[in-house]
Amino acid sequence: MQAIAQEIVRGDYLDRVHIGLYFFDASINRIAAWVIGTRAMLKALLLALLEPIEHLRRCETEGDYTARLALLEEFKTLPFGAVWDFYCLQAGVPVREDWLGEVRRYEREVLSRRA
To answer: How far is C-alpha 64 from the chain's CA centre?
Structure first.
């Protein structure tokens, strides 16, 4: 997912790409699988969007492949977690693993009534 998100963002294809997700794991709840998968894709896009793409492109254009590789390595330690938590707070959704409580509540209150 990260490689796909990087390709979409680095190629400036966000306005031309529709991302379809399909997550199935018979060993877990479908709602949980959907939430886990969707959040994973959003995180991959956020990671890609946090990269200083213009700086990377400049290195590429100037033939400075050493700087490009060094930057790609440094990107791995960007402050992603704090940005993701802030995004979740702004979106009004649970931060970190707190969403799991919502899924458990849904299982208890809704899914348990289905037979």
So the answer is: 29
Half-sphere exposure of 113 (CA within 13 A, CB side): 4
Q: Would the pTM of this model clear 0.85, i.e. be above it?
A: no
User: If phi over 0 gives left and psi between -120 and 50 gives alpha, with beta otherwise, what is residue 84?
Assistant: alpha
Kindly report, residue by residue over 37-86, the tens digit of the pLDDT.
999 999 999 999 988 889 988 999 999 999 999 988 888 887 888 899 99
CB-neighbour burial class of residue 76 (10 A; exposed 0-12, middle 13-18, buried 19+): exposed
* 8 Å CB contact between 102 and 29: no
